[in-house]
Design a protein that fits this description.
The chain has 171 residues and is an alpha/beta fold. The chain is built from 5 helices and 7 strands; from the N terminus they run βααβββββααβα. Helix 1 packs across helix 5.
C-alpha cells in the first residue's frame, strides 16, 4: 500500500503553520532520480505557489532560494523504505523549529511530467499545471518515462501541506 510518511498518531497542530510569518523560503538539497532541477522548481511553484498551491489558500509567500541556511523547507531525497511503500515524509513544524525536512524516497521511481494521455483530466482539475510538467504528446519517450514514475509534483503538494503545518484530514 502506498502511503505518506506523516504519522497519524502525531498530534495535528491547531494553527495552520508554526512559522513566525508568511515567508516560506525553500531549497532543494537533492532530487530523486527522474526529476530535473527545472522540473523540481516548477513542481514547487505549483505546489506552494500563489496561482494554485498552498499560498493561494494560506497567504504564504513561497520562494526558492539556493542557500539552505536561510530556507525553512529543505527538500531532498533519501532511501526511506523502497518501492511502493512510504513515498515521502515531512514532519509538521513545531514551535521553535527553524527548518523542516521534506524527503522523497529514492527507492521509488519518480516521474516529473504528466503523461499526455492524462492531461485532459488534469486540466479539468488543475488548469494551472506548469508547461514543464506536461509531457510533450509527440515525445513517446517522455510519455513512457512519466507513465513509469510516481508524479513528483503531486507528492510534493501533499507533503508540502505537512511542511506548513497541515496534518491529515479525517474526511
Amino acid at each position: 500500500m502506498i502511503q505518506c510518511g506523516h504519522t497519524q498518531r502525531r498530534e495535528v497542530l491547531e494553527s495552520l503553520s508554526q512559522w513566525p510569518d508568511a515567508a516560506l523560503p525553500y531549497t532543494f538539497m537533492s532530487l530523486p532520480s527522474g526529476v530535473l532541477f527545472e522540473q523540481a522548481i516548477a513542481a514547487a511553484e505549483w505546489a506552494y505557489g500563489s496561482q494554485s498551491g498552498w499560498a493561494k489558500v494560506c497567504g504564504l509567500r513561497p520562494k526558492y532560494i539556493a542557500d539552505a541556511r536561510q530556507a525553512r523547507v529543505l527538500i531532498g531525497s533519501r532511501r526511506i523504505d523502497g518501492p511502493s511503500g512510504v513515498l515521502a515524509d515531512c514532519y509538521l513544524p513545531s514551535p521553535g523549529m527553524r527548518q523542516v525536512n521534506l524527503q522523497f524516497d529514492t527507492g521509488d521511481t519518480w516521474g516529473a511530467q504528466i503523461p499526455a494521455a492524462m492531461m485532459a483530466l488534469v486540466e479539468k482539475i488543475e488548469p494551472s499545471m506548469p508547461a514543464v510538467l506536461r509531457a510533450d504528446s509527440s515525445s513517446d519517450g517522455a510519455m513512457l518515462e512519466a507513465a513509469r514514475g510516481i508524479l513528483y509534483a503531486l507528492v510534493l503538494r501533499h507533503e508540502g501541506g505537512h511542511s506548513i503545518g497541515l496534518g491529515h484530514s479525517g474526511a
